[in-house]
Design goal:
By secondary structure, the protein is of the alpha+beta class. It is about 30% helix and about 25% strand. It starts with 8 loop residues before the first helix and ends with a strand. It comes from Muricoccus nepalensis.
Length: about 525
């Protein structure tokens, strides 16, 4: 996409020379500081500057430069103070947050508890959101502004994970956000945060230019300006780094890893991530499903994916070890659930489904498809490492058990919208459990979609299991950490036994940087200018 929302010729010149676009400079009351710029090349497209529009990693990474949260997470996903200095339960159903004094919005106005109350109201109600933030505030029944620096959240039931949930919700201002839509954030009008950087310009599908906020309450940032660029093509991203056009890239192509490790001008930063790459099968329909037919090309009268045997067969047909070895080239690990080993609520009893083509064929026959059927597997081609290669490999594996599979890989900006509309029968996507525990997925991915209850926000397949929902609700309301972990582990097993979705592998997060720089590799895969420092 080449259309720019508020980039003008003066703005583009300002970004190159280090100055702010005149209109935004006036609105934010600042001039660009002197100092070294930083250029970042990301592999996933940012779809909006609205921090509540879409809960996707590229959007969230950019948002974290401009907006802060009450509670932040460090590189290991541990909770640390953000706009709130402390948080404590004052009763079983009330949390009190003490806010940081002296914080200013980018336009110089004071941050107060009223902005928090506005944010909690806005976050779950953004029109046309393809996957928003309602799940993180679902527990809150009422927000009480005690004083300008104290806010209390009243919940319907005990909510021990509320601070963890609020670590995912960017705080926006009432004065800039009241009556503002996503288009107002994208235009820059409402993109007024408290974060370490201010927005200069935003060009969807291309780049966002940022300038340092010298009034930020956090540590002084070494980068006066940041150019946050989308470079979706793997080869182009690596080439940009080697040519010196960018200082850092994420989603390092696996095919380039060996070369980059030998390259004296480059250093790598890596860490085990919390993102699972997985497949989902449409559960939104009882009748015919788009992109699914019999072998003669006629639509099937009933949705085959409601049959557990079909879901099991398709999972058993996948050789996860081969995917990790041949497609991911050793940068991923096979998994049967969505958290890496060692995480709170990881269930060691839940193993990856073993590759068993013969058993897959037998299950298909038992389900009434001894000759298989036809389907199309959809996925993005510019969002996750080797995403299009992965769906090609899975399609070949399904072909071998009799499921004639075509593949259609699409740009993320198109794919995400169509997926949210339930247009696909089978699809590949990814989900990062940035909270480091199981409820994040249970609420947002496997929870029955219910806008009123703010459940299943990212459940695009529309999977539904009332027993799993009940167990999730019980677990998230359990105060005792050990008991809650046991309940979450039970829920993990229930979801995976029912093939709520098909986990394929866990990613290792890798960044490549110019020598002389260091990056604090993050398990949540966020790519942040605040994590880049000149090497000691």
């Amino acid at each position: 996409m080449s259309r720019r929302l508020f980039v003008t010729a003066p703005a583009a010149l300002a970004a190159i020379t280090g100055g702010l676009a005149p209109s935004l400079a006036k609105a934010q009351g600042t001039a660009a500081p002197a100092g070294r710029p930083l250029t970042i090349g990301i592999g996933g497209a940012v779809t909006s500057l609205d921090p509540h529009f879409y809960n996707a990693s590229p959007n969230n990474s950019l948002s974290m430069h401009v907006f802060d949260r009450l509670v932040e997470r460090d590189a290991q996903t541990r909770l640390v103070p953000g706009l709130a200095l402390s948080w404590n339960p004052v009763s079983e159903k009330v949390w009190e947050f003490k806010l940081r004094p002296g914080v200013k919005w980018h336009d110089g106005r004071d941050f107060t508890a009223d902005d928090v109350a506005f944010t909690i109201e806005r976050a779950p109600n953004v029109p046309n959101s393809p996957g928003g933030f309602g799940g993180f505030v679902r527990a809150i029944q009422r927000t009480e502004v005690v004083d300008p620096l104290t806010v209390r959240f009243h919940t319907a039931a005990p909510s021990p994970l509320l601070p963890t949930d609020l670590g995912s919700v960017a705080i926006v201002s009432r004065h800039a956000g009241a009556g503002a839509g996503t288009e107002d954030y994208n235009s820059g009008k409402a993109a007024i945060g408290t974060g370490p950087y201010k927005v200069v310009s935003y060009a969807p599908g291309d780049r966002t230019e940022l300038v340092r906020n010298d009034d930020w309450f956090g540590p002084k940032q070494p980068w006066a300006r940041v150019s946050y660029r989308f470079i979706g093509n793997d080869s182009a991203r690596t080439a940009a780094l080697l040519a010196g056009d960018v200082d850092l890239i994420d989603q390092v192509p696996t095919s380039d890893l060996a070369r980059l490790k030998r390259e004296s001008r480059v250093v790598l930063a890596e860490v085990q991530g919390v993102r699972v790459i997985y497949l989902t099968l449409d559960r939104s329909r009882d009748g015919a499903v788009p992109f699914v037919t019999d072998n003669a090309g006629q639509p099937l009268p009933k949705n085959p994916f409601h049959d557990l045997r079909i879901r099991q067969a398709l999972s058993l047909a996948i050789n996860r070890e081969a995917l990790c070895r041949q497609v991911m080239e050793g940068t991923a690990a096979p998994t049967g659930q969505w958290l890496p080993p060692g995480s709170y609520s990881y269930n060691p009893e839940v193993k990856p489904d073993p590759f068993n083509a013969e058993r897959a064929k037998a299950l298909l026959a038992e389900a009434g498809f001894p000759q298989g059927f036809k389907l199309t597997l959809h996925g993005p081609n510019d969002r996750y490492p080797n995403d299009s290669r992965t769906i090609q490999a899975v399609a070949q594996m399904w072909q071998r058990v009799g499921v004639q599979t075509q593949v259609e890989a699409l740009p993320w900006t198109t794919y995400s919208v169509r997926s949210n509309r339930q247009e696909f029968a089978a699809r590949l996507t990814g989900w990062g459990s940035v909270t480091g525990e199981a409820s994040y997925t249970l609420v947002n991915i496997t929870g029955t979609y219910d806008a009123a209850k703010r459940m299943g926000t990212n459940n695009t397949a529309r999977y539904s299991n009332p027993a799993l929902d009940a167990l999730t609700e019980k677990a998230t309301a359990t105060l005792d950490n050990e008991e809650r972990e046991k309940l979450l582990q039970q829920a993990v097993k229930m979801a995976m036994d029912d093939q709520a979705f098909m986990p394929l592998f866990q990613l290792v997060n890798i960044w490549a940087l110019k020598r002389g720089l260091a990056y604090d590799a993050r398990a949540d895969e966020r790519t942040l200018a605040t994590g880049v420092t000149p090497a000691a």
